[in-house]
Amino acid sequence: MRESMARVGGFEARRVVGSVTGLRGLTVRACDLPAPLGALVRIGSDLDAEVIGFEARQAILLPLSSPTGVRAGDRVTLIDPTPCIGVGDRLKGRVIDGLGRAIDGGGAVRGLSWRPIRPEPISAMSRKPIDTMMRTGVRAIDLMTTMGLGQRMGVFAGPGVGKSTLLGMIARRSAADVNVIAMIGERGREVREFIEDALGEQGLSRSVLVVSTSDESPVMRVRAAMAACTIAEHFRDQGLNVMFMLDSVTRFAHAQRQIGLASGEPPATKGYTPSVFAQLPILLERAGATEDRPGAKGGTITGIYTVLVEGDDLTEPISDAVRGILDGHLVLSRRLAQRGHFPAVDVLDSVSRVSTRVAPEDLLGPRTAAMRLLASYQDVEELLQIGAYARGSNPETDAAIDAKPRLDSVLRQTVGEGEPFEVSKARLATITEEAMASMRNGGRDTSAGRTARAPATPKQGGRK
Fold it and tell me: What is the rounded CA–CA span in Å between residue 136 and residue 140?
């Protein structure tokens, strides 16, 4: 045995090395490189790339940065056959990129352990049912679309309606033990604005941010999303409740489409390659609640995924695919945002599929009544705007008109505003009880102690 070990010790480790044979667009071809798919390689002395495919015994590489300066015959060296990311408690309060490198000026993060960014999926039988409420601190969500620990919720909205602000509010006020926030494909200036304005010191102190901006390689954007999932899984396996936020799934899909097209995939649905729709469930299914397993405690990852709705069209391919995978969706309305109603959550179009299971029993009745009142008001909103609704024709509509401003006051919330959940629940119950009493009394506003009347219509031609 000793003699055999001595022989092995006498051998030198050989490196897997190939050479560049071609460059087309952003992809590099390399021969004599038996590296597996997804492996990290180095072209020359300082350009890292990922293996994204093979063709005619050549490896197709996509660099993590600009391929400027690459020449035919350059050496290609295998760096990491299994992509990994460093994880640990020291990541809290830090901002890193898709390779785990600190980009916040605070120096390298040390003392971490390594985990693969694409692990084997957890068995369906190892997942726990979602039966406990997750309080986000946002009234419109907690009252009307209640979330559960381990739920996956989508935030669907067009640009400029307050997605980032809503994420910041949740990161500050949620009952989660730690936040993991992936900013994928964001504009460079928005990253620091989100950290300083939306997140703040309170939110950053218990958060890990993984950032890949829109000017980075599509490989880096996809790696950053997968790396953020791995970091969230690390905290979950410690038995913690993790709030995982990814902004946005749409830009993740765009990056995966670029990779697919570069590797030779044919465009399918509206230009998206088949690998996009294969990767979406792999990404989204990594959230959830798990039971205790060998070497891991049972924790939860509650996922919030923003989807940038192009042209406010909720039926475009990515939105449609994501809604079929997630456990609910929040729709941010441009109409509400234009009226200064923030967060601009359209509670009538938003759905939480686990809401009735996790919400307190004494919330279900008031919430159902509130939805009924808001729907009644929406039915006659256009008639009210043109003065065509006759007061007294429908007691339920009259009660909805009276209750609408008070319901809006509950659903609106500023960034710095906080309120205990029990107080918010009591406010909603009071409003709906008075509205229901008004309906029973034929439309008389019981909260004001008088019969509600429609505002007088000014006479034509009279003085103002």
Answer: 10
| Alpha-carbon gap, residue 364 to 143, rounded angstroms | 9
Query: Residue 196: helix, strand or coil by DSSP?
Result: helix
Residue that the structure tokens 């936020």 belong to: 245
Number of neighbours of residue 152 by Cβ within 10 angstroms: 25
Q: Are 136 and 170 in contact (CB under 8 A)?
A: yes
Q: Is 137 left (phi over 0), alpha (psi -120 to 50) or beta?
A: left
Q: E-strand spans in 187-287?
A: 207-213, 241-247
Q: Which residue has the tokens 């605070």?
A: 106
Encode 343-376: b = buried (16+ Cβ within 10 Å), e = exposed: bbbbbeebbbbbbeebbeeebeebbebbebbbeb
| Rg of the chain in Å (alpha carbons) | 27
Taking 3-state DSSP, the helix, strand and coil percentages for the chain, each rounded to the nearest 5, stand at 40, 25, 40
User: Whats the size of the chain, residue-wise?
Assistant: 464
Determine if the peptide bond prior to 248 is cis (ω within 30°).
yes
Amino acid at 353: R
In this prediction the pTM is 0.89
Query: What end-to-end distance do the CA atoms of the chain give, in Å?
Result: 106
What is the pLDDT tens value at each position of the chain, 464 positions in all?
A: 445 544 444 444 457 899 999 998 889 999 999 899 999 999 998 899 999 999 888 999 999 988 888 999 999 999 999 989 999 999 999 999 999 999 999 999 999 999 999 999 988 999 999 999 999 999 999 999 999 999 999 999 988 888 989 999 999 999 999 999 999 998 888 899 899 888 888 889 999 999 999 999 999 999 999 999 999 999 999 999 999 999 989 999 999 999 999 988 999 888 899 999 999 999 999 999 999 888 889 999 999 999 998 766 777 899 999 999 999 999 999 999 999 999 999 999 999 999 999 999 999 999 999 999 999 999 999 888 888 888 888 899 999 999 999 999 999 999 889 899 999 999 999 999 999 998 888 755 555 444 344 444 444 444 33
Helix axes 274-284, 249-262, angle to 10 degrees: 140
3-state secondary structure of 52: strand
Beta strands in 127-227 (DSSP E): 133-134, 147-148, 152-157, 178-186, 207-213
CB 192 within 8 A of CB 343: no
CA distance 231 to 297: 15
Give the single-character DSSP code of 90: G
What is the Cα–Cα distance from 68 to 47, expressed in whole angstroms? 9
Nearby residues of 268 by Cβ (< 8 Å), 6 or more positions away: 274
